[in-house]
């Protein structure tokens, strides 16, 4: 295993551990609104993920009638998305 691979694994493990600890302590909610998802991951990304049916908004009955997205699914989709490495439109 290369040093770069080890660094990536450790970074992902610490991020996941911190996220789990915050969710268990109640400081981080498991459901986020679309507006919060837009702030975290970008409007274009979230809208594309919804249109591609990678994630589906759901109603949370104990809250208002707004639709919410699952934070863990959003983070998993964002981590697996490699669109950053694609060529810009001008270079295609």
TrEMBL record:
Name of this chain's protein: Uncharacterized protein
Question: Species name for this entry?
Answer: Pedobacter cryoconitis
């Amino acid at each position: 295993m290369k040093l770069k691979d080890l660094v990536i694994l450790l970074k992902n493990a610490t991020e996941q551990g911190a996220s789990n600890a915050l969710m268990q302590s109640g400081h981080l909610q498991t459901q986020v609104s679309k507006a919060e998802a837009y702030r975290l991951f970008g409007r274009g990304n979230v809208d594309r993920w919804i249109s591609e049916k990678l994630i589906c908004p759901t109603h949370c009955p104990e809250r208002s009638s707004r639709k919410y997205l699952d934070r863990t699914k959003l983070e998993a989709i964002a981590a697996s998305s490699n669109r950053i490495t694609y060529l810009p439109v001008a270079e295609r």
